[in-house]
Design a protein that fits this description.
CATH topology: Metallo-beta-lactamase, Chain A
Number of helices: 5
CATH superfamily: Ribonuclease Z/Hydroxyacylglutathione hydrolase-like
CATH architecture: 4-Layer Sandwich
Bound molecules: nickel (II) ion, manganese (II) ion
Shape: globular
């Protein structure tokens, strides 16, 4: 059994059947919804980063230096973390997959912007999502920050658990996220990227209603886990 724990916004810990510890989009210390602090994290094997905005990226370099975790992201963003002192990284690009010791990761398209907060402008990044196929067989899609895009149709049949933004304003809102569920047809959908700031306030129960019986909607509170 793998465990997915939400830390608010887009940040999740994924612990695999084999005990590998993977952190996705770590924005922790300044995240008003987070149930943890970076000081609580002692060991990590991998950090997956969807794009360079601070609400996904802020704690990447700090945690990579502390744990020596391998940063998995787009090529430019990994290069940036290494320029900041992160030791281990694996750069990829959209549409490419690679088999790691915990399973396969494919970078998926995300329609969004991608400046790196704190960068001098020498790096640009394309935002991505992740299709993670664990050795245990579980298939998890973390969409990152994205609009609804037709490319999501290509994920149909490949996803057990879809983690989708519903906050609107910066990403898909509930209606478009429900349309994404229609395209992808996952078994389970977990909403993210909402209620962190006033501008992305949403009632996740409204999203559940929009999804209807197309998928099981699992609404987590920060610190709660879902077993995949
Ligand atoms: Ni963003
Ligand atoms: Mn964001």
């Amino acid at each position: 059994m793998a465990t997915l724990t939400w830390h608010g916004h887009s940040c999740f810990t994924l612990v695999t059947d084999e005990g590998k510890q993977i952190l996705i989009d770590p924005w922790i210390d300044e995240n008003p919804m987070s149930d943890i602090k970076t000081g609580d994290i002692e060991a990590l094997d991998y950090i997956l980063v969807s794009h360079g905005h601070s609400d996904h990226f802020a704690d990447v370099v700090k945690l990579a230096k502390k744990t020596n975790a391998t940063v998995i992201s787009t090529f430019e963003l990994v290069a940036f973390t290494q320029s900041q002192g992160a030791k281990n990284g694996h750069g990829m690009n959209i549409g490419g997959a690679y088999v790691f010791d915990f399973g396969r990761v494919k970078l998926t398209p995300a329609l969004h912007t991608g400046s790196i907060d704190g960068d001098d402008g020498s790096h640009t990044t394309d935002p991505a999502g992740f299709l993670i196929s664990l050795n245990g067989g579980q298939r998890i899609y973390h969409a990152g920050d994205t609009a609804l895009i037709m490319d999501m149709q290509l994920l149909h049949g490949s996803v057990d658990v879809a983690i989708l933004p519903i906050g609107d304003n910066f990403t898909m809102g509930p209606e478009d996220a429900a349309r994404a569920v229609e395209m992808i047809e996952p078994e389970v959908v977990i909403p993210m990227h909402y209620n962190t700031f006033p501008v992305i306030e949403q009632n996740p129960e409204g999203f559940r209603t929009l999804v209807g019986d197309r998928a099981k909607v699992v609404i987590l509170q920060p610190g709660e886990s879902f077993t995949v």
